[in-house]
Amino acid sequence: MATFGHITRERCAQLGHALTAAGLAWEDNGNQDRPQLLTYTVTDPHGRRWTIDPATGNQIAPSRPASLWQALCTDPFHRSPVMSARAVAARIRDFPAKQDSAAPTAPRNSPAASPKE
């Protein structure tokens, strides 16, 4: 079972400070005492909405204990790797306004990328 013991009020405060320092508008759902339900909502400079959730215990590498957060944007779809508070704030702030149209949107071997028969 995944554990969330690594998410503390101090770690939540670090994320809030990093988002604010990056100039991002954000709010949380107030579940710092129940990290399994904790979600942050962030608006990037292009008006897109992102959610940031804490990583589960099995997603955290012992060599990178500060990497506790994962961000998700649905338009365009993008899921960040598990990152530190400062890194996830920078990823959201710096995410390009438009995706490169030449970049693949799905892996080549996925059904979404295969031509219809």
Description:
The chain is α+β, with helices and mostly antiparallel strands and 117 residues long. The protein is 20% helix and 20% strand. The protein has two helices and five strands, in the order αβββββα. It has helices at 9-21, 85-94; strands spanning 25-28, 40-43, 49-54, 69-74, 77-79. A five-stranded antiparallel beta sheet has the order 1-2-3-4-5, with helices on one face. α1 runs parallel beside α2 (85-94). The chain is globular and about 35 Å long. The model is unreliable at 101-117 (pLDDT under 50).
The N- to C-terminal Cα distance equals: 41 Å
Strand order of the largest sheet: 1-2-3-4-5
Number of strands: 5
Number of helices: 2
Task: Produce a short descriptive summary.
This protein has 117 residues and is an alpha+beta fold. It has helices spanning 9-21, 85-94; strands spanning 25-28, 40-43, 49-54, 69-74, 77-79.
Furnish the topology, listing elements before pairings.
Blueprint: H1 9-21, E1 25-28, E2 40-43, E3 49-54, E4 69-74, E5 77-79, H2 85-94
Antiparallel strand pairs: 1-2, 2-3, 3-4, 4-5
What are the main properties of this structure?
117 residues; alpha+beta; 5-stranded antiparallel β-sheet
